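re the bet — no i am not wrong, look at it urself. input seq straight from the record:
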Amino acid sequence: MNVRTASCVSVVGVMLMAAGTGSGSSASDSAHRCSGDVSVATELPTSGTDAAEGFPAQNAAELAVTQADTNHLLGDCAIDLITKDDASPGAAGHDPSQGARNMTALAANQSVVGVVGAFDSAVCAAEMPIANNAGMAQISPACSDSALTQVTPGVSSQPQAGALQPTGTQTFFRVGGTDVLEASTIAQQARVRGATRAYVIDDGESRGLASVFAREFSGAGGAVAGDASVHGAAEVKAALADAAATGANLIAFCGTSSYDAAQVRSSMHAAGLDATLFVAADTVVDPEFVSAAGPASDGALAVTASPDPASIPSAEAFSQAYGSAYNSAPTAYSVNAYDAMNILLTAIKEAIEANGGTLPSNPQTFRAAVRGFVASISYGGATGTVAFSRSGDSTNPVATLWQVKNGAWAAVKTVRG
């Protein structure tokens, strides 16, 4: 889908950001000579079980594009936004194969100079070699598997970092933290709350996170009583029965589906685990978890590799603009997606200015320039100052602990890595 987003988001939202952080800044004199269209894309799960997080992330990226276009960040060049959905009916949510097809189409479109996405690590792993071979910057707001950027043998089900960047040039970047920060946050906060024996449940896709958590929890003085990979109600029931038999006082769920996390949480009562602490990681902090788990959701804890927008002054204008534009509050990873798109847009602006204020005539040269400016950026965004290491990781990673209180997620503590 190709959208000229300036007409899609309220002018009120744009005006709120005109003097604030982000791409509300005006174009330089040289950029005003720019003419033509520049295409950017999002590649996120906006249907199926992941839509509760994926769609708000797409909205946030769209908001950034709208503000940039309205404020003429690229001078007289217009910004086109292409949106791709990596969910598929067969997977009922994010699908690595669909993500790979989407990225192949975006890479083949010579007008696209960068992509914000994906949301889930398995999809990122499927897409990264495609974007890398195309020389195209890819900035993820949420993919946290450490193996995407670091060689970590034995702790991930994903291909290792070297295979994901076959050209040897870093084209993948992430705004959020890694599994290591998420896992250490879970472990420390669980220990503070009295957890001593953990039973670790994963969805098969997040085994890397589960392995890192087990290591971090043991290092924090806890013991891992058992573990299981589950698919479906019968396997959840069996895993929880095993957890009860081992005397676990912590259920740690590592997975990407709010529905799966809710199934584990809501099944704990029948297993006699009412008094057992429940902590989830990855992308489960959204209204779907609360809805699916019902009353059992109360008290549940979860960690995201993102900040709480309400707790950082730099995100205040973003939250106001998002609410005005979409009549809803941003979700946990929306602010990451917003910064990811603004970083991409800022890099595009710098590439145009470096070319004398005009669009580079060679698409590959343009992509290479944008990638280079992303790699070297130090961006004062809604999440704080964002820069990237040589491996593409954020140099200012963050994790936030959340808890369901009165039927809604509320931030408890934010940790900087």
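see?? Residues 334-354 form the longest helix (21 residues). told u. also The mean pLDDT is 90. so pay up
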